[in-house]
Amino acid sequence: MKEFELINRFFTGRGITRRDVDLGIGDDCALVTIPEGCQLAVTTDTLVEGVHFFSDISPKALGHRILAVNLSDLAAMGAEPAWISIGLTLPNVDETWLEQFTEGMHDIAEYYNVQLIGGDTTQGPLTITVCAKGIVPKGKALTRSGAKVGDWLYVTGDLGDAALAIEARKQGWELSDEDRSYVQKKFDYPAPQVAAGQVLRGLANSAIDISDGLLADLNHILTHSGVGATIHADKVPVSNALKNLPDEEVRLMLAMAYGDDYQLLFTVPDSNRVAVEKRLAEYGVTPTCIGQINANAGDVSLLYKDKPWPFPATGFEHFS
């Protein structure tokens, strides 16, 4: 199967069709109409075999995952996902693999009302790049730079499950069948907090998605906002699977410094706490308050059961 046959079979005409797409797959560029009074939010992520996923990952899970991590970035800005383009590098054409991969991608795209509008295919080591675009009311996007002294720090859900899935496999840790299945699903099929991001517009001061680890991503907010933070490590929410690990320090390391969670970390002024918790609950999200913003620019004070706690890691960073 050659390139254009591949595109026509697995990408053209599949998935949803949005009214705001004037010209999709098949030309040199796609054309879309941005609603009046809105801004375009654009994000790009690349997943590389052996770096971001194991070689034996289910192709359907990989198709879901590559889109989910991009939608998570849009969620952090409070944007509504709309369109995606994909760059796919393949070592060879495996029709069964492609069918499953595109099924996973089209399924999540349909769930979030996102249309595939273009991209590129080429031959080489397995690498997938997605550019996702969304729309947000002008001037209403959440950013990393809005945190204020006195804001409360929240996360939308449990942290550390994807880390446990990875490390259990790499280190040979023994997990129950139930726990292993649970954390592997959390890694393979992350759930971007798209609805939560849109709820937070106008209520939160800043937000970021947790992809590189809680502490690393928090540092981005602190740097851009010129503030510091106090974090209560014992309040960071974790699943029962993580709680079943016997070593508490390992549990906290996975939850705070590993990443791949794709929950949202956000700051809320005291006056909006009740509104945020109530609105998120309407979408099935139970946020957890884990700390507070302070005036010590760039500094993170870690507490465990209200006592100072030194922590040896900060999060994932390429080329480190």
TrEMBL record:
Keywords: ATP-binding, Kinase, Magnesium, Metal-binding, Nucleotide-binding, Thiamine biosynthesis, Transferase
Sites where the protein binds Mg(2+) 3: 28, 73, 209
One family name in Pfam for this protein: AIRS
SUPFAM superfamilies, per database record: PurM C-terminal domain-like, PurM N-terminal domain-like
One of the protein's GO biological processes: thiamine biosynthetic process
Function field: Catalyzes the ATP-dependent phosphorylation of thiamine-monophosphate (TMP) to form thiamine-pyrophosphate (TPP), the active form of vitamin B1.
Family, per entry: Belongs to the thiamine-monophosphate kinase family.
Annotated protein name in UniProt: Thiamine-monophosphate kinase
Species in which this protein is naturally found: Pseudoalteromonas phenolica
Protein's gene: thiL
